[in-house]
Structures are given as structure tokens and as C-alpha cells.
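Possible regression after last week's pipeline update?

I re-ran a chain I had predicted before the update to compare outputs. Posting the input and the new output here so someone can diff against the archived version. Not blocking, just want to make sure nothing changed silently.
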Amino acid sequence: MRSTRSRLTRAFSVLLLGTVVVSSATAGTFETDSSAEASLLKRKVRAAIFLHRATFGPTIEEIDALAAEMVAKGTRKACSDWIDDQLALPASLHEPLAIDMYQGDGLVGDESDGDSVWIQRYKFHAWWHNALNAEDQLRQRMAWALIQILVTSEDGAGFNDRNLGNGRPTGQNLPRWLGVVDYYDTLVSGAFGNYRDLLENVTYHPIMGVYLSSMRNRKTDGVRVPDENYAREIMQLFTIGLYELNLDGSPKRTTQGELIPTYDNDTIQELAKVFTGLTFQPNASNNWNTFWSGNDFDLPMAMYQPEHDTTPKVLFGGAYTIDDPQSDGENEIDEALDILFEHDNTAPFIAYRLIQRFVKSNPSRGYVRRVARKFENNGQGVRGDLGAVVKAVLLDPEAWRSVRIVQRRSPDRVIVTSRGTEYSRLREPLLRYAHFMRSAHPTTNYGGDGLFRIRPIDWVIVQESYRSPSVFNFWLTDYQPAGDIVSFQPSRRITNGALVAPEFQMKTSVTSNYFIQLFIWQLDSAEFNVGNNQPDKKFFFNWDAEKAMVEASEGDEGLVNLVDYLDLLHCCGTMPQEYKDKIVEIVNYETRNQTADADYSKRRFVGAALAVLASPFCAIAE
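New output (post-update):
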């Protein structure tokens, strides 16, 4: 008898062939038993769309709970209250969790554990545990969005060092490899705070200092000049971008139609002088040379005044001059950060990128303008309030227009129609896989503490925490894949007059195949080994409810209900009806001779789930 996996692979191939016939369909239908049920289902679709954006992927229970709130309060009020509740939750941090994890496993966390122990894996364990389990899901998602703007990775000098730092008194120092975790926690803690404060905390963090070489950046000696890396990237990537923008994110142009650069090389060189003199916190037991003695990655950098450039810094063609009367390095950094934070470009620059990370690849000018205005003023006169900004991103009217949801009678049903390319984005592979796991009610037998010690999965899904390939993130914000999108003429609403699809920069036929094989393997086995040289320690998925759904009715009714359920959970109701009908047809065909088998319901569930998870309707977020 063929293995379950080979049957699934064949069935999936047949289904893909079937999509050639049904790909013109754009609407999915949910049949209900009453008008009240149809009305509730409309809210469930809205809840699924919202929670896919605001979390690492919803469970069906979370969708049902928010939908019930929508019925009671109205859609916008329910989502607004949900956001407010999330803003009030305490931050789930990763560094203390990683420490708890390795100490729970009887490890010290440093070089004393021995060369055979990959102790740095615990940063990934902690990240995945919080992504899947933390109650403050919106904060965790916001941190994930911010790390793709304020980018660092584990690929820095000393970032995986198992030696202890030396910035604290003896006995209190932490392993240096935890520094990248501490940097990520800086974003977690500041996710709903002020962007100016976050920009300062990032600037002084030693991980950023090493990653973009502002660490031990020295003033000129007449031959050597200050390193320009951080000065360039804080402008290009963190605040104002390359070209002047209108508030709606569209580029300003000269009378000749040329783009207007936001800065020139002179400004880079002058700003580089501002970021001189920063170094590690001094060795707590020996600070005889405070510029060279420290090495601690989780304590803010300190200003070593003798290495700070005290000459005037002239920025933006003379628009600003930084020249502190006391020549104090920290004061000059404060002034430079204020200038960048207050720059007209910063609000639309950040607004556009957060919309891309949460909602859609191609926001309209109006969408960017509304979010940028919230960045400029949260309604109480405060600029840079990230909590207000993310709320504006998620509740903007345009965010609700990605699909058209219509309720019909005779029979009672709900029809969900996608609005098209301008309203969508390709789901990040990490978010797609995280939701797959969250939706399956995972558990583990590792450690007895319920903590999820999951290994990095980028060898399959290409994307992983702490592993951005460059300071430009996993993809460029304006990336266009080859094909029709390059010549496609979007509506005049789009900010730059062309469509982009950033996440496609990582998508290839090879990575797509890896993803499908991962789904086949984990759907079939319903578990995977967590590694760490302990083959009996596993991570389990629970699909009992889904399998019971298949068994609940005679004929095809249970399978039809399952496909509708999976469509709602994983595709937010956007799967065309022809495609859903084809899933039922092919799963029936592939399991026609197995009705007496003990795992008959499992095979039907797995076949249907694979067809949904590997479909373009799951891959594309509307």
C-alpha cells in the first residue's frame, strides 16, 4: 500500500491541475442554516482577517471570541477594544525566558557548558515560544515588524560568543550571545512607546553599535575619519529614506520631475561625527581604560568623551548645525535624533513600512497619509506614539476593504469576494508557519514546564528570527518580481505609481516545494522532534476536533464543513467555491477504498488541510 505521504503528494498534484480550471473564480460561499448564523459568519470572516494581521495567526477560539464581540459591539468597536486590551498587557520578554529555559535544562549558558552544547539555540526557543504562546500577541507582532525596519541579526562580531560580559559586578554578568535577544527585547518593550525613545535606545544598544559600526567610532586624527555606516543607515533605513516625501508617501519632485534626495554625502560625513565616542560600558572590575575595556552586549553603550568629535556638524546643506556649548557627545546625539525624528519624511516613511508589515504591500496615498498624521499627532499632541500608530494601521477604513462580504437569503449564505492585487500581500513564510502551529493547539513533553523549545526552521521556510540576511531586511520594500507586475498599471491611489511585492524576493520554486513538504510531513505525523539530542522530546499538534468534524455527518457533509472551517481559519474565507468543491472531490476519490481503515478520518482531514495550506489563497493575505 502506498504511504500516506505519497498519496497526499499525488492528490495535491491532481488538485493543482484542477486549479487551472477554477482559477478564474474569485468568490467563496458559506452556506448557513439561518440568517442569524450568516450574520455571525460575516463577523467571523472579519475577525479572521483582523487577527491574521494583529497576531502570529489566530486560533479558531480567538476568531469565535472576537466575532461574538463584533456582534455585541459592532466590528470597529470590538477590534478597537481588542487593541486597547493588548496595549495594556505587560511585555513578554525573551531574554529572561531564554535564561529560564537553559537553566531548566541544567545548563549555565556560557562556555562552561562545553563545546558540544549549542547554547545559542535558546534565543530561537524563546522567540518561538512567545510567538506561539504569549498573551501580548500584538506587541510581539509589532516587535517583529520593527525588527524589519531597525534591522540587526545574529551575524555580528561576537554575537554568538559564549563568554560572559564584563559590565556588571562579578557574578552578575550574562553570556554575550544573549545580546541579540536583549536588542530584540528593546523593540518588544518599545513596541507601543514613542519612536523617538526607541530610536535612542536602538542607537545606544551595543548590538546596533557593532552591527552598523558605531561602536568605538573614533574622531578624526587628521588621517582616520569617523565611520559613516550608522549615520547613513539611520537616515536611509530608520527615519527619512532616500528621497523627500509628501505626507501621503508619494515622492516630491523638482519642476523638472526629478526626485529630491533627502541628504547628500556631506550630511553623511557630518552626521558620522555626531556618533563618535560611543563604546561598551567599561569593565566593572577594571575601568582604567573605559574606551577599550568593556564587552557587554546587553548594557547601553557609554560616551567616551575624549574620542568624540567636538567640531560643529553642519547637516542638510546648512539647515541644521549641531554644536553643543559643552561639546557633550550625548547632547549632540540627542540633537541629531531630534532632527531626524522631527523630519517631515519620518512620519510617512514609518507609516508606509508598518502598513506593509501588517496589512498590504501597496497602500494608497490616503492610507499612508492617515497613518502618518497619527504618527505626527496621536490626538493628544504627542508625536511618534507607536501604540496609536499601529491602532491606526489596523483600524483604517482601507484595511477593511480587502474583501467584499455579502449576506444573501434563500438559501442563507455568505459570499466572500477578494478585491484584487492592490489590496493584498504575500504572507511572510514565518508568519504563515507560525499560524499553522498556533492553529493546531500545540503541546510539548519537553522539560515538563510547557515551554516550547523549537529549533530554527529557516532551512525550510527561509525566514527566521535573528537571521536577516542584511541591514535591508529579508527583502526590499520596493521589490518587484519578474513578470506582469512590472508593467501593471495600478490605480492612481497607489503612492509610487507602481505595484511592489516585497515578500516575493524570497519566494522561489525551491522554497515553495520545501514549504509544501513541511506541511505534508507535519500534517501526517502530527508531531516533530525538538532536537537537542533528545529524540523522545517532541512537539505535538492536536487535530482531534478537525478529524471529528469529518466523522460527524453522513456522506460529504462533514468534509464540506471541514473545508469551510479550514478556509475560514487559514484563508479568511477567500477560497473560491470551485476550489473548495475540487478539494472535496479529490479527497473523496483518494480515500474511496479506505473507509474501513482506522485512520480514514485522519487521511481525509490531512488531504483537505494540505490542499488548503498549500493553496495560493492561504499564501496571499487579503
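Follow-up from reviewer: compared with the archived run. The chain is about 45% helix and 5% strand. Marking as no regression found.
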